[in-house]
Amino acid sequence: MGFNGLISSRLAAVRRIGANNDASVRLSERIRVAQELHDTLLQGFFSVSMQLHDAVNDLPADSAATPRFTHLVQMFDTVLEQGRLAVQGLRSPNEHLQSLGQAFAGVPTELGLPGAVGFRVVVEGRERVLSASPRDEVYRIGREAIVNAYRHSQAKHIETEIEYRPTELRISVRDNGRGIDPRELKWGRSGHWGLQGMRERAERIGARLRVLSRVALGTEVELCVPGRIAFEHS
Amino acid sequence: MMDQCSIRILSVDDHPLFREGIAAVINNQPDMLLVGEAASGGQALQRFREHRPDVTLMDLRLPDMSGIESMIAIRTEFADARIIMLTTFDETSRYNERWRPEQAGIYSKALLPRT
Q1: Across the interface, do A109 and B93 touch by the CB < 8 Å criterion?
Q2: Phi, psi of A214 (to 5 degrees)
Q3: What is the ipTM of this complex?
Q4: To 5 degrees, how large is the angle CA B34–CA B71–CA A35?
Q5: Domain map of chain A by residue range?
Q6: Any chain A CB within 8 A of the CB of B27?
Q7: How far is CA A202 from CA A80, A164, B12, in A?
Q8: With contacts defined as CB-CB under 8 Å, which chain A residues touch B28?
Q9: Please, what are the domains in chain B?
């Protein structure tokens, strides 16, 4: 190896270490945030939820307020559950040790999503090592898409495909559910599906996110990450 | 008198707000009585010795030891102690594999209470 070769491989090594450090700093920061949310918001919300249930049970059976409060309590619990899942996602520690396929395959169990839905992960092409920081974002986008499909699509089957193409990494999460109304997809309500957050994550790593949906047929969320960003180069 | 027919409960959790919720719910039940509270595994054993509760509600994560370790400490001294473990995250499957339900029921805090 010539002098220049030596220098450039050293630089590459330093850059790799730099990237790993970024990722581990981010991970520890995430765990810290998760801990704080857990200790403050979640415990407080659990407490309020318990007491609200109790209070609603104490209302006179014929009280006009009962339906309203029952509805509010249900809403509160939905928000609490979403918060709990979000915090759990922030702190999940194992995702870095597994392949992307294993990590996605573990999402429904990890988040306690209903087992009645058929879920599978398909890996196409030869698996390649992913660079640390985009890997993290790719996992989070994919997981969000899976969770969305479970929450909103009413699908019987959800499939996640990971395709290692020569020039890019392609992730697709598709379901055979009720689809998203095109107007929702275009205007605001899509915030409901967390699409904006996924788009922002995708942009941050220089990837492209596409959502294809047909009412009553299903939805596909597709993420394409250019190979030079996605794959670890030796 | 009421003391004799009530279910006597000890609540162990390091989060004051959560303990407050547990206390409010228990004290609203005619047949339950909160006899003590603890914020750590060490305190839990102390309070258990003092009050000998019928049931202990215990957070799976405590500042000085895990809820499981605290449970073992209590059960070493009081073999028939009944302990219900509570957890924020869904760790129920992981622990129930190692600890049989008859040893300790583990429940998600998110499922409390659904009356």
Answers
A1: yes
A2: -125, 130
A3: 0.72
A4: 85
A5: 3-91, 97-230
A6: no
A7: 27, 17, 43
A8: 54, 58
A9: 2-111 (3.40.50.2300)
- A168: tokens are 């890019």
Among B17, B25, B89, select the one facing A88 at the smallest CB separation.
B89
Q: What is the CATH number of domain A97-230?
A: 3.30.565.10
Looking at residue B38, its amino acid is A
> Amino acid letter at A79?
V
234 residues of chain A, pLDDT tens digit each: 444 444 444 444 444 444 455 666 776 777 788 888 888 888 899 999 999 999 998 898 888 888 889 888 888 888 888 788 788 777 665 455 568 888 898 888 777 778 889 999 999 998 888 887 788 889 889 998 998 899 888 999 999 999 999 999 999 999 999 998 877 776 545 455 577 778 888 998 999 999 998 988 999 999 999 999 998 875
Asked if the Cβ–Cβ distance from A54 to B18 is below 8 Å, we say no
Best of B11, B13, B15 to disrupt the A interface (most A CBs within 10 Å) is: B15
